[in-house]
Amino acid sequence: MPNLTSSPLFFFFLQIVSFSILRIHAGKDDYHCPTTRCSDYGPEIRFPFRLEHKSAPNCGYPHPAFQLSCDGGSENITTTTLIHIWPSSPALVVERIIYKEAKIQLFIPDGCFEALLFNRSLSHSPFRFFRSTNATVINCSMNKFDNIDPKDLCSTFGSTYLREFSDNYFVDDMPLSCHSVKTIEIDIGDDWIFGASRARANLRWELPLCGHCDGSGRSCYTKNMTTRTMGCHPGINRKLIITGVTLGLFVVVIGIFIIGVKAYQSLKCSKLDREYQLKVEKFLEDYESLKPTRYTFHEIKRMTNSFRTKLGEGGYGSVFKGELPNGVLVAVKLLNGFNSFADGDEFINEVGTIGRIHHVNVVRLLGFCAENLKRALVYEFMSNESLEKFIIIRRDPASSTDYNNIQRSGAGPLFLGWKKLEEIAIGIARGIKYLHQGCDHRILHFDIKPHNILVDDNFVPKVSDFGLAKLCSKGQSIVSVTAARGTMGYIAPEVFSRNFGNVSHKSDVYSFGMLLLEMVGGRKRVDETVEVEAEVNQVYFPEWIYKQYLEEEEEGVEELEGTVTLSDDQAGDDDEGVMNNIARKLSIVGLWCIQWYPVDRPSMHGVVQMLEGSGEGLTVPPSPFNSSANSNPQESAPRRPHFSHLSVINE
C-alpha cells in the first residue's frame, strides 16, 4: 500500500485545509453575516438591516422595520429593495443606504411622503427625519389668498394645503375661508426646495448605533435576540494571515519537491511500467476474447456459407464447417429444433459451463445462437476431428476373440505411436482435472468418451460436448442426479445405482479409465454391428487385460503390446521397451480408474501424477469386476458386467 504522507495529493490537501482554517478565522464575519443585495445596482444590505429569506436573524437588528425585501426581477423590471418603516405602512423603495451616517433614502412612487404622516407620526418607527421642520396643514373653502402663496402638499389632499410657518407669518393672517387642520413634521434635506416633489425622504436610524464596530473595520451582529444585545465580529488577525500564507508557501514548496521526486522515479521505472501495462492490456484482451459471442441465425448462416460443408451428424443435430469474418475456421453445431438438447437444460449447460472456461485441453466455445427454436454452438475448428477416428479398429471375423489378431484400420492417418497416445492421454487427464479443480465451480462432464475428445492439428486433445455437464461448488463432493446420464460402456456404476456409492467427480474418473483402456485395446466398447443377443458373448476387454496381469504380469505386458500390431514405418523410432512401458502404464492407470466403487478410484489429480510418472512403481489394482472367469482367459473369456444390458443414454 502506498504511503499517503508521501503523496503530492496529501500536501495539496494540507494546503487547502490550511487556507480554509485561515479563511474561517480571519473572515469569520463574512461567513456568518455576508452582505447581500436585491440587484447588482441595489443598495448593500448589512447590519442593522437584514434581507428577508437570505440573512440570518442575528444579522439584523430585531425590529420589523429593519427587515428588507426584494420585489420585481422580471426581464423588464429591475429588482427593487423595499422597506416598511412601521408595520402598517406601505412598502417604500430603498434607493440608498449610508451606513457611516446612519442614513437611508426612500422613495414612494406616485405619492407624497407627507401624506403618510397625516394620520401617523414617525414616533411609531425607529427612524427619524435626517433634517426636518414643522409645517401647518390648512383647509380652505376657496383657493384664494391675500398676499399668501401656500404650496400644495399633495394632489391627494384636494383643497387642503401645506404652509411652512415663518417669523413674519402666523395662522391669524390666514383668510377667513381657511382654518388650521394639523401641524406635521416634514423632511428638508440638502436638496429640498419648498413646494417641490414630496416623493422622496431622507431618514436616519437612532437604534442601534454600530459605529464603534464599523470604525474598527468590524461588523455588528445581534448577540441576544431577546435583550437586543449587540456585539462585534472579530476583526482580521494579520498575524494569522502571515502564518497561514507562510504555511501555505511551505506546503507548496514541499509538494513541488515531492512531485519532482515522483517524476524522477516514474521516468526511471517507465520501462517496467510499460511492460506491466502491456501485460494488463493483454490480459484484458484475453478476458474479452474468452466471453462467448451471441450471433444471430443470419450470421450463423453467413459464416457457414448456408451450411454448405457438413462435418458430421448425430442425435443432437449436424456440425458444419464455418469461417468467421477474421478468417478463423470454426465448427458450427446446428441443433435440431425439437431435440431435447436444443430446447432443454442441455443447451444452457453447454453455454454456461464451457463458455466460462479456457484451457488448452478443453474445446473453446466462441459463440452461440438462440433465436426462437434455431439454436447453434460455435466452436474452434478441430481439423483432425475426434479421437475416435484414431482408435477404431476392425476385427478379423475368423478370430473375433483373439486380440493378437486385431489390426487397426488402414484407412487414413490412424497410426500415432505409443508416445503420441501417451501425450494424448495426459492431455485429456489434465483437461478433466481442470474441470474438477481449476474453475470457480467444479464441472462434472458425465460423458467422457473418444467421440467427445477432439484433436487439433498438433494432435492436442480437447474435451468437448458439455451438454450433460453439471456444476457444483468446489467443496461439494457429492451431486444429485435424477437420471442416468452418459453413453453406454462409459457410465460409472454409481450413476445407475446408488448401491455402489454416490455420484461425484469420481464418475468422470471411471469414464476416463474406460477411455484409456479403449486407447490401449484399440476397439470400441460397443460394437454396433453385432446383435444385442450375441453381444453378451463378446469378450470384455478390461477384464481380459486384467487377467493377463494376474497370470503373469511381465508376460501380460508383452501380450498386451501384441494386441496392437504396428508396421515398421508406423512404429517409427519408438523403442520396444518404451512402448511396452507406456502400454503397461496406460493399462494399469485405466484399471485403477474403473474400480467398481468410487472410493477406490483415484482423483484426476492422482491420475495425472501417475500418467506423468515413469510407471515403474505402479501396481495392479484389485479386481474391478464381479464376473467369474475361467482359469484360461483366452479359452473362455469373461463376460461383460451385468449393467451392459441397460439402454444407452444418448447425448
Automatic annotation (TrEMBL):
The places in or outside the cell where this protein is found are: Membrane
Provide the leader sequence positions: 1-26
Gene Ontology CC, one term: membrane
Q: Which InterPro entries match?
A: Kinase-like_dom_sf (IPR011009), LRK10/LRL21-25-like (IPR045874), Prot_kinase_dom (IPR000719), Protein_kinase_ATP_BS (IPR017441), Ser/Thr_kinase_AS (IPR008271), WAK_GUB (IPR025287)
Annotated Pfam families: GUB_WAK_bind, Pkinase
- Annotated region described as Disordered, given as residue ranges: 618-651
Q: Which UniProt keywords apply?
A: ATP-binding, Glycoprotein, Kinase, Membrane, Nucleotide-binding, Serine/threonine-protein kinase, Signal, Transferase, Transmembrane, Transmembrane helix
PROSITE patterns associated with the record: PROTEIN_KINASE_ATP, PROTEIN_KINASE_DOM, PROTEIN_KINASE_ST
- How is this protein situated with respect to the membrane? Single-pass type I membrane protein
Which residue ranges traverse the bilayer?
A: 240-264
Molecular function GO labels: ATP binding; polysaccharide binding; protein serine/threonine kinase activity
The protein's matches in PANTHER family, at most eight in alphabetical order, are given as: RUST RESISTANCE KINASE LR10-RELATED (PTHR27009)
Protein name (Swiss-Prot/TrEMBL): Protein kinase domain-containing protein
Q: Which organism is it from?
A: Aristolochia fimbriata (White veined hardy Dutchman's pipe vine)
